[in-house]
Amino acid sequence: MQTVRQIATEIVAREGGFVDDPDDPGGATKYGVTIHTMRRLGLDLSGDGAINSADVRLLSKSQAVDIFVQHYFELPRLSLLPMILHPSVFDMYVNAGGQAVKILQRLLREMGFGVTVDGIVGPKTARACENAADPDPVALRDAYGVARRNFYFRLADNRPASRKYARSRAGGKGGWIRRAEEFVSSAYHLSDADFQRRVAGWE
Asked: 105 near 125, Cβ under 8 Å?
């Protein structure tokens, strides 16, 4: 099983370098760390008294890994979840914050567990996950990955500017969908035809 730092290193590689996409609410971002996160953490890397895109550009891979491990895994207490969920929930937490846990909690409620959808990993959520993972933890991981993929589709349904993240310029699966499916067994990957049917209503 991967260590948390190994998972974080893969997230950094997956996120890529500096981008400042006007359609991305995260703003200037490097290795998945947004300017908003850097301001929240007070990371003035240039030392000029202001935290702006120049500071985002100065961020190193090792700094990004440290931020993710501390603020996106340890502080949200993702360690309380079954280990099989760590890669996908951690990756989603970097991508969408507390929504990563809310997706999990909604899934648990659909499975009959009485958890609160509050985006916080506490004893009840952790216990429900342990029970849901028995006897087939892979099934729980897959169910979470599919729920995550559906979350991305709903975002794109409701926000046309975000559709470029779910569907590529060539018309195939975009980064969001491919990212979700990295953590899902191949049997549950959408076929090209199924994907096209799902996005047929988008312009």
From this structure: yes
| Ramachandran bin of 165, using left for φ above 0, alpha for ψ from -120 to 50, beta for the remaining angles | alpha
Q: 142-158 pLDDT, tens per residue?
A: 999 999 999 999 999 99
Residue 116 carries which DSSP code? -
Name 142's Cβ contacts closer than 8 Å, sequence gap at least 6. Answer: 184, 185, 188
Tokens of 52: 């702006």
**Alpha-helical runs (H) found in the chain:** 4-15, 35-41, 53-58, 61-67, 86-96, 99-110, 123-132, 137-158, 163-166, 175-181, 192-198
Bridge partners for 33 per DSSP: 30
pLDDT by residue (tens digit) across 24-57?
888 999 999 999 999 999 999 999 999 999 999 9
Q: Residue 135, preceding bond cis, omega within 30 degrees?
A: yes
**Coil, helix or strand for 33?**
strand
